[in-house]
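INPUT
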Amino acid sequence: MLEEFFSPRSVAVVGVSRDEGKVGHIVFDNLRAGGFTGEVYPVNPGADDIHGFRCYPSVTAIDGDVDLAVIVVPARLADGVVRECGEKGIRSVVVITAGFKETGPAGAVLERALVETARSYGIRLLGPNCLGLISAHSALNASFAVTMPRAGSISFMSQSGALGTAVLDWTAGEGIGLANFVSLGNKADISEVDLVKAWADDPNTKVVAAYLEAVGDGRGFVDAVSALVRHKPFVALKSGVSDAGARAVSSHTGSLAGSERAYDAAFLKAGAIRAHTVEELFDVAMAFSRQPLPAGPGLIILTNAGGPAILATDACERNGVSLASLENDTISRLQEVLPEAAALYNPVDVLGDAPASRYENALRILVDDPNVRAVLVILTPQATTEAKLTADAIAQIARESGVTTLACFMGDTAVAQGVRALREGGIPHYPFPERAVATIAAMQKHRRTLEAPPSAPAPVEADRALVAEAIAHAKHAGRTFITEQSASRIAEAYGIPVPRGGLARDFAEARKMASEIGYPVVMKIASPDILHKSDIGGIQVGIEDEPALLVAYEEILARARSYMADARIWGVTLQQQVVDGREVIIGVNRDPQFGPLLMFGLGGIYVEVLKDVTFRLCPVTAEEAHRMLTEIRGFGLLRGARGQRPADLESVVDVITRISALVMDFDDITELDINPLIVHDRGDGSVAADIRIGIGG
Amino acid sequence: MLEEFFSPRSVAVVGVSRDEGKVGHIVFDNLRAGGFTGEVYPVNPGADDIHGFRCYPSVTAIDGDVDLAVIVVPARLADGVVRECGEKGIRSVVVITAGFKETGPAGAVLERALVETARSYGIRLLGPNCLGLISAHSALNASFAVTMPRAGSISFMSQSGALGTAVLDWTAGEGIGLANFVSLGNKADISEVDLVKAWADDPNTKVVAAYLEAVGDGRGFVDAVSALVRHKPFVALKSGVSDAGARAVSSHTGSLAGSERAYDAAFLKAGAIRAHTVEELFDVAMAFSRQPLPAGPGLIILTNAGGPAILATDACERNGVSLASLENDTISRLQEVLPEAAALYNPVDVLGDAPASRYENALRILVDDPNVRAVLVILTPQATTEAKLTADAIAQIARESGVTTLACFMGDTAVAQGVRALREGGIPHYPFPERAVATIAAMQKHRRTLEAPPSAPAPVEADRALVAEAIAHAKHAGRTFITEQSASRIAEAYGIPVPRGGLARDFAEARKMASEIGYPVVMKIASPDILHKSDIGGIQVGIEDEPALLVAYEEILARARSYMADARIWGVTLQQQVVDGREVIIGVNRDPQFGPLLMFGLGGIYVEVLKDVTFRLCPVTAEEAHRMLTEIRGFGLLRGARGQRPADLESVVDVITRISALVMDFDDITELDINPLIVHDRGDGSVAADIRIGIGG
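OUTPUT
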């Protein structure tokens, strides 16, 4: 996909200016300076040649085939140029020009026209209002960013052009190589989803990194990233998390950011790694690009100083990175090569006077230990420290052993040579241990993502016709909500337990139904003319047996008649009386970007005051539902705290997956709340005591 | 304090070796290379001269006065050298030598002897097992760290020598200046507390930074830091937060780390700023050293690109940094100098093509706005960007306006000149916006610390004699706990409301007491031989009237007798039955380092499952107690959620301060729990339904 963007044989730059300060001139200069070896065609109707290159009056005037056109003409001319590209048979176009949607309604009109023209010719279009793109392995700099990155295996997309420029300059300084760089601009056609798909197939790309401000096609994004991460990690910094940030996004790109919760759930669903700062984004991407994934948990810290090792172990605790326990044999072997005062357990401290050979001896033993799946080597510059030689040894052992290896050489000039050697040897280096550990945590997270058995939601048997009819009926009646009775029937149709019950038209039916339901029961007057049943004594709870049932029946009917003599009375509804249990809430909200977002939490004050809830994007699998249960802070209350028996967790998982199936099947359901779901002790199931369903669309 | 350590007129180095690789040689070389202009005396009985310096056989053989002695002899000789220093009249000694407490019991014995010798001569001693110290303003490098920092205004102490070396090298590379550097070593005499006190008075020190693994004298630390922060900020990285980390500490320095909660509470009490990484430690310290404290809340972000500004606003949200709202007049003035497309609200975006003059014009207007108390200038390298000139303008305006100014020039070579100019101009620079914002957050926190009115705990009227006697009585009886009855009386003595009640020896007394207390009451068997009262039916609650009282009395006594025929029975205790209210827990635990640590939380599952609690070091003031209430996640339940009336918060604050007074008055109280304190609606007070007090000491 998008091959002509990243490996074109020929490139036309339309709008090349003779004026050196102009964007059109810079783009052309960058293209030449980048070392691109294909054909290059400058297009400018007012010039014969530029830098000795023959200049064409239009793309249609070019003799040879053109794979990629880069457009830098003024906004009002862009549409015409795209049309000419179409006529010329060019199918890949970058529009660097600004002045479109980001400037307001008039620009948005221009942008729509541009896209329609492109579509009519089958052209894929990057931009407008972007920096362009760079493909390091094709020596292609089709952007107005001056820096050509060294060829590496990180492909990076940025929804901010300026951030892209800064990152290109910064990665160059840090010696971080890139495979591709794309400035997304207004994403009029090519979006993050297209790039994720393109880079999934790109052999030069080992990891995909992204700076995103909003995602357009949420479901497409989740699907594309889910597919990608099976082969390569996806690390993204999504900004606009704050209200203030969200405002800045909308004024910046004119696009609306989806809710934070939905983004978190989408990243989780897709197996993406979410970075929270630019630094973290590249700390993690760099490690993925240079080192293999750890084969399992178990980090060993090798150090020549105690203090930094403590900082690293603290960071392991914070980040949930488990430390390796060494085999006895490993300890014995370490003992043979290390001084007596050395610490032989994790962290392994080779002491301040350690030369490179001591690090090397220890490291060779450590990577042999089956419990060691990742290594963090910490070095502080001391009198006899050999930073460069130590770095060389680390790189060699990492290469030979295949064990994931990161390093932290603390200091500046005293370790500079060592840091350079680490880079050259493919060892990710971090100036402080905390950043190295956070990176290991991200790698371990990705490993767990890959190791999790592929899980799909189990099919749910359901009476879909009943639900479709109930929704149609409510819509026909002009309602945006399903009635209580109907919501119960919808839930039942999806196998969600609701209190047993129904309408009894006379006492004989009531008696039969009550014995089927089982006492105690709740009785309510059934009349379309009586809305506030409890106000007139039309509800009775705790009916324990048949005599009480008769008394209740007579009384409720009498009260109804005395309240309104001519009320239409259908009879009474009977309902199983749901007794004690723990209350949870299961809710669904439809996110504009990502679709149904399912929430789980403890009911009542736990959700209202403590906001102790967790979210997943639908469809929610049983595995995910299980994890949701354990994620809330109050999980102990369900598991059985203070001597209580455990609640029936399986039944909650079951209800979650059924609710998920329901909202996935019916797009018309905009929101749904079971509040509360009464959860009984283990083995005794749960009951949806109150269900509200909102519809729309 | 400690003047001779930081500004000595003469220094003796004892144990100078002729062997270049030896520590003694390196220390002497460093001293000379650092540029120290005072007298320098090498001491080595086996040499006549070293590098042309006359060598002395011992310190006593030196003709002139010696202010400071640096000792690098083997551990077993150190004590003798300290004695000679004492004889010579030297009162300031650094023992770099290792091989003391950190090596085990034998080393600890050597160390104790060393300290005793020093004390007997009135010598202050730094170390042993340390790197030494550096005073940049005295050009004094009395350490074996090669790097002499450039003179600045950060004074840094490190409990890890290796971390110190690495930081010295790193700060040199980053252009961060230091006033003093001290490697604490084993802290046999001079501790972090001494240094905090010394640097409080040091005119060269504007900010104190520390890497600490443990604090010895917790109370002394809190007092010293509290006094320091009135004049200069204190920023510290305290490691060993994790269990794993704590193990590493104990194997590293032989000192025991206090509990994490206590350290957090101590830092809060003292007004210290706690950093979580080395990077953060110096990010913050550097800003304090170079820029004035913001005069109030209100940050303006000035940028030439949207993306990084969004990252900055996100970080503001995360860190609780409030953005400034600009005056209308400011907006109008900005409008006059900025292009039409510029964003005039916060963040102010001067657009990608902004030259230095546009930044300058905008910044001059912004620092005039009374709502702007801090500025973050973000710059991304674009075609027309003038990084160096922009930096110069920023530095000049910051100097002239006095408004706190930080900068983030993103990139590497493209902004290198600008970054250099920022450093030279005294503007703290951060490679990414998130770190700059976190630093602003720390500065704002320090400002709030300084602005908070000084608050002392209000005096509590109490019957201290009663408490002293109750404790003495329990100790005399060999108990580690105060009995329930006695604990109630202790609480009452400090004005803490407890349920009314007492011992009734017969039914007549019970009847009289119950009518005084008011029904309903709770009755319990009173017998020193029956411990688990409820197990034998020795407790009855909800006694509503006199007939029920008689039944309960007879039954309880009968059950007690049938349980143990010869039990000593004192009668029954009666207690007011405390009815409905919200349950909270107030507990105190005595931390070995920091003394009584008071916990507040909601009772029951909130503390047991949700761990929704907060801590303060005692004495807790009313202001602190108020803040504790709002800090728990479940505060909404106390304030009145779901239509409930607010709870009587004032009474909770009152109980907290009284408990605090009690445990401050009586060191013998090792732990105390009020669980639950039943809190009634506002105005109705609260009652300590159950009080447990542990004693010891």
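end of record. Chain A has 24 helices and 28 strands.
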